[in-house]
Amino acid sequence: MTHDDEGGISLEQRGAVLLIGLDRPRKLNGFTPTMLRELAAAYSELERREDIRVGVLHAAGPHTTAGLDLPKIAPLMERGEALMPPGEIDPFDFARQRSKPIVAAVKGICYTIGIELMLAADIVVAAEDCRFAQLEVKRNLMPTGGATIRITERAGYGNAMYLMLTGMEIGAADALRMGLVQEVVKAGEELARAVALAQLISAQAPAAVRATRRNALLALEQGPRAAVAEFESVQQRLLAMEDGREAVASFVEKRPPRFTGR
User: Fold this and answer.
1) How many CB atoms lie within 10 A of CB 232?
2) DSSP-derived pairing of the beta strands 17-23 and 102-106
3) What distance lies between CA 70 and its chain's CA centroid?
4) pLDDT at position 233, please?
5) Could you write out the DSSP letters of every residue in 13-69?
6) Which of 156, 157, 206, 223 is most buried, judged by most C-beta within 10 A?
């Protein structure tokens, strides 16, 4: 783990799961340029490694993040400089470069970029003590990490404006009600639960997991017709794989399948 003033990102592999940790707890995991660069590199490693199927985003210390460290980040934003290296996977997933799913575990304070990163993930587990706030309007900023898109998409326009135009804080129960998180667990159990979900996903056929994720996102962004148009060709491709034959064989033999991704 990194403990200098710039913070960093920790990595830990557990089987086919890669744990990606925000590591600047003494500063409430406030994001620095170094952390953004290392996070993009971590997401790129997740995508590149064939032995890793799922990522888990989490944080060191009692809080997920207080948001951006503005004195360190604002000058770059004002100059229009890229916050992440070109060619790396964007953690906000705007360009849809990432094909593997990510489960996010959030706790304590989860502000601004923390909300945007968790909504860019695929499943979110929140500790019951988690508090959420989209504070940009209090800092003369607009959310540009996806909040205007994804909070509106998940929670509806009224709830999105309620959060983003007031900068008010909500708790885990309200986040669950609005669809911003999928599970709320006791404080201290969020990472273990996120890892368990990631391991469950990693046991499934990896090509089918990626195809399912991609088709759902296609439906959101281009509508049901675009998603339906891919049904037949994708299904044929999946069935023609070694894992397709393994799925049929395991069904006939009444045993758990052993998927390899081929």
Assistant:
1) 9
2) unpaired
3) 22
4) 97
5) EETTEEEEEEE-GGGTT-B-HHHHHHHHHHHHHHHH-TT--EEEEEESSS-SB--B-
6) 206
Q: Which amino acid is at 107?
A: K
- Give the whole-angstrom CA distance, residue 2 versus residue 259: 36
**Residue 71, beta-bridge partner list:** none
Predicted confidence (pLDDT) at residue 159 exceeds the cutoff of 90:
yes
Q: What is the pLDDT of residue 4?
A: 61
Structure tokens at 105: 């575990």
Question: Taking a C-beta distance cutoff of 8 angstroms, is the pair 110, 65 a contact?
Answer: yes
pLDDT surpasses 90 at 74: no
Within 8 A by CB and 6+ apart from 214, the residues are: 96, 99
| Number of residues that make up the chain | 262
Average pLDDT of the residues in 5-32:
96
CATH numbers and ranges of domains, the chain: 8-202 (3.90.226.10), 206-253 (1.10.12.10)
pLDDT at 3 over 60: no
Q: Phi/psi of residue 224, each to 5°? A: -60, -35
Q: Is 241 left (phi over 0), alpha (psi -120 to 50) or beta?
A: beta
Dihedral sign, Cα of residue 224, residue 100, residue 129, residue 8: negative
Which residues have C-beta within 8 Å of that of residue 135, sequence separation ≥ 6? 67, 111, 112, 167
Angle at 149 between CA 144 and CA 150, to 5 degrees: 105
Strand order in the sheet with 131-133: 109-111, 131-133, 169-171
Task: Compute the CA torsion angle 126, 130, 134, 136 (nearest 10 deg).
Answer: -130
| Paired tokens of 176 | 């669950």
